[in-house]
Description:
The complex is a heterodimer of chains A (165) and B (506).
Chain A: E1 6-9, H1 10-32, E2 39-40, E3 43-44, H2 48-70, E4 78-81, H3 82-122, H4 127-148, H5 157-162
Antiparallel strand pairs in A: 1-4, 2-3
Chain B: H1 2-14, H2 17-35, H3 41-48, H4 57-82, H5 91-139, H6 144-161, H7 166-180, E1 183-184, E2 191-192, H8 206-225, H9 238-247, H10 252-267, H11 271-286, H12 298-314, H13 316-322, H14 328-339, H15 346-351, H16 353-376, H17 378-384, H18 389-408, H19 412-429, H20 435-458, H21 469-482, H22 484-505
Antiparallel strand pairs in B: 1-2
Amino acid sequence: MDNERALISRASMEVATALVTGGVGAAVIWGAAEHDIGWGDSGPGSGYFPFRIGILIILASLTNLVLALRRRGFGNEVFVTNAQMRSVLAFGLPILGFVVLSLFLGLYVAAILYLAFVMIFQGGYRPLFAIGLAFAVAVAMRLIFPIWFKVPLLTGPIEALLGLY
Amino acid sequence: MANLDSLFHGFVVALTMQHVMLMMVGVLLGILVGVLPGLGAPNGVTLLLPLTYTMDPVGAIILLTSMYWGALFGGSTTSILFNIPGEPSSVATTFDGHPMAKQGRAIQALSFAFLSAGFGAMVGVIVTTLLSGWVTSFALQFSSPEFFAVYFLAFASFVGLSAAQPSKTIVSILLGFAFATVGMDTISGSLRLTFGFDELLRGISFLIVVIGLFGIGELLLTMEEGLKFEGVRAKVSLAGVLETLVRMPRYWVALIRGSLIGVWMGITPGGPTAASFMSYGLAKRFSRRREHFGTGEPEGIIAPEAADHGAGTAAMLPMLALGIPGSATAAVMMGGLMIWGLNPGPMLFIERPDFVWGLIASMYIGNVVAVILVLATVPLFASILRIPFAIIGPLIVVVCFIGAWTVGASKPDLWLALIFGIVGYVFKKLDYPIAPLVLALVLGDKAEDAFRQSMLMSQGSLNIFFSNPLVGTITTLAIILVTWPFWAGLMRRVHLLRIRQPKVIE
């Protein structure tokens, strides 16, 4: 039963999102204010448009905030349950790991490690199968992108060590 | 008749061996992304776009548009066989398509879907052919205020016509505009909203945003729902297809109404998803077999499919003629046009007739090719979905990030894709529409330029948007649309009062 419990309610997520979009609006205003937000030598300055967009973002976010707060009393709709959050994290955290690995080791090595990890520990596949498939994907990446389409992918120290590039 | 003449030349351009091959490759890749959950038409076109940087623009656009058609068809395949819409625009197809397939009539359901989709697409292309000359000559009179008014109209119709809460649509549009201003200002050359990060100098690429919002976001959502593929097996036989073809004319009302709704929603940027729902709703309301809807009624498949594809093809018309894409996928393609050095809008018809008419001609051929290919490959793509998601899911993730890298070979783009993935997940769950954000991001620079030029012309007075009948009409229309939710609410209240009054009198 615990799994079906609401981790985050829809109402609080609505409020949080409205606050974040409002924050983005404030950041846009702040960034625009570094430039000419009024009338320059050649018409509207470069801060003119973003400054006004920023203000409108804050106004629209405030509307969303008020609507979310007003609706709070009605029902308690769920944004995400414990079980849902667990499966999202189980899928999302390895993606985060994949991005971090890519930055240091390049896309090929990161893809091999990520695919093998997910298939073995989450998919429950035999290590030999998983690692073999991961390597096959890396070979396919190499063939399709740098060789056929002449689009090089991000490589890291291991490729350099092996003299692949 | 000048259009027909141009169209003929277009066919000469499109019907080369190389271009027909590109069409087939595009359609097959499209079906693949359409079938796979988490990969849809906007995202698929985005992933393919960096690979076309070096291609000639005619071949590139044929490849990308064919992929779009393929993706629309692929989305319907999974809707019918697996009850899982591969594309948001094929959700309405699941209502009657899947029940029909479960009754052992999978091939009929698929044929109804593909044939009516093909019909809708044809209506879309014919309308595009007939109207493009007229819209272009109209648009050639436009200067900056008119262009800004048309952009305003496009975004106003999102607010007015979308089912989402209006203030959420507005936030989505404005965030797109704000992200578009990041980086170098095209007029003054100053750097805006980079907050000292050198990585933001080049701005935020709409391609990265699409990969995040539509790709990673969609995957996270799919994972959360913990989906299982329990499909219906379909055997494709020519006899089954022909039998359905013979029965098609019986449903001509649903077919034509669906196509017209689609074309309308494609030209005004309502998009294929809204079109398919609207068409399904209307078909159900006016059908004599209303109570059979939801149990495998052919009309319930024909109506949304014709509208879906009608909208998909018709979305090309405003993109080419006005420079305003009618759907998220069309927005990505328009971004592609700009990357290839073409300038979407009325001048494109004069500067590059070979490109425009080659594309329009390829839409005729591409959709016929797509109907044939999609029918022939149903068993193949259905078997792809039987591969466990524990393998397919991570593979799609890798493909998305490879795509993010190929956009600009920049490391921060990988982070951006991940961040927009989370944004996409949250926005989808809270019903913030994301297509308007992409549209605003693609159109942002052009809209800002048009606005600043207009302000220059008028010395800062907003009256310029009412300075002649043309721009005045467009602006007024846009204002009505943007305030539409307010008027609709008011009318509902007045209506309620009227209903109540007689009761009081009695």
